[in-house]
Amino acid sequence: MTCIMQVPRKAANHMSTDLTMSFTVEQTPQQVFDAVNDVRNWWSGTIVGETSALGAEWTYSVPDLHFSRFRITELAPAERVSWLVLDSHLTFVVDKEEWTGTTVRFEITEEGGPGDSRRTRLTFTHEGLTAEQECYDVCNTAWGQYILGSLRTLIQAGSGRPDFFSNQESLEAALSGTVETPSVP
Predict the structure, then answer these.
(1) Residue 97: strand, helix, or coil
(2) How many CB atoms lie within 10 A of CB 52?
């Protein structure tokens, strides 16, 4: 089951809706955690640095399109991963630093109880990326492909699809909003 939603969150005395999406899988919380930290196998672009150590800083870049520098601020095995965006440059929006100061968060929870089949839910939230921001629609499309598509496939099948936007045609489709977000049965 997949759920893409905007979650109301109180921040500084006003309501905010951060980009959020989630899915459930049969794999364990630890397997989901390990896949989230295996960033190179589910997110495209050039990734430089350690992506699985608390306090580590790393960069993500796609030439002439996107650069972000992250710090891993939370790393709780089988529970949570958070990346603070320290610096960003998006070429396709007016505010090139729209991601700077936002947080990318992965919450991992086990569902089901005794006698039920246990499943693991991954909830992805890009805190600070709201519908009011210019990159929201394009970023929703791209995150949808990577989270609901590539990361989910990596968790379930052992191999992600990190190069979904690897050619000019697919990049242009994402920027124009003509790429559909993967649906999960």
Answers:
(1) coil
(2) 15
Angle 4-163-110 from CA coordinates, rounded to 5°: 40
b (16+ CB within 10 A) / e for 63-91: eeebbbbbebeebeeebbbbbbbeebebe
| Separation between Cα atoms, residue 81 and residue 38, nearest integer Å | 12
Convert the pLDDT of each residue in 144-170 to its tens digit.
989 999 999 999 999 888 776 555 555
Q: Where are the beta strands (DSSP E) in the chain?
A: 2-11, 14-25, 46-48, 57-62, 66-76, 80-90, 103-111, 119-130
Query: How much is the pLDDT for 112?
Result: 81
Measured over the CA atoms of residue 180, residue 106, residue 34 and residue 88, the dihedral's sign is: positive
Residue 128 exposed, middle or buried by CB count within 10 Å (0-12, 13-18, 19+): buried
Q: Dump pLDDT digits (tens) for 28-58.
A: 999 999 999 999 999 988 899 999 999 999 9
Q: Rounded CA gap, 162 and 45, in Å?
A: 8
